[in-house]
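pasting for the record
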Amino acid sequence: MNAFLDALIHYDFLQGALVAGLLASIGCGVVGTLVVVKRIAFMAGGIAHSVLGGMGAALYYGVDPLLGALLAAIVSALLIGGVRLAWAAQEDTLIGALWAIGMAVGILFIAKTPGYATDLVSLLFGNILLVPERALWFMGGLDVVLLVVVGLCYRQFVAVIFDEEFARLRGVPVSFFYLLLLCLVAVTVVLLIQVVGLILVIALLTLPAAIAGHYLHSLGAMMVAATLLGMVFTSGGLALSYGPDLPAGPTMILLAGAAYVLSALVARLLARHRAAQRARAGG
């Protein structure tokens, strides 16, 4: 740990990696909580994996791959959301199709990109140590968009997430806010791609919020706790991976996964303890 802290002071690329992890944690804490409570992780997975098509096309045509990823993610989110609202029975089929087609198209574009030896592994699994400064500004801008939209529409999101029918009765345009939620998921996916890549996005998007949900029942409190947990996992994973020279992204996910398993066991034990106390009090 001392070696990591010393390197963090001297090396700009480690400082950039730490900032990238903190910026990504804001998105995964705020939007990840909405994904977990609404139980749309599979949808988020479909959006995430279809992004490779946009990144591959952007590389092929010489455009910033993050812009291609953002466009592909939003288009996929609107397609998935539109089909879910119109034909719920076909929703899982479309998600699976977009998942596969997006990755296939992306790989083909990357393979045919002239004069560009793209590291496909870094797109799939992330490389937080190579995040450029312009990407940090881009991630910061996306975080601002997420926070502003969630802050302005918080009550509507709560209504849509917990009871769509009741929200309709109260005059909330459920379809609009549902599609807006999926667009926020798309933006968050692009945030996390820089840190852990396409394959591991869903883990970082959902695990911190799932851990917070073991102990908290307020949506706002879950968002704050999930953001802090995301910061711990990204910073801790970066520190743990530095000494043994391990890939930072997978190390972050293993740390988050271990914390989730431990938290689930603790939450189960606490629930049994409270049930036993109630039984004794009732007896």
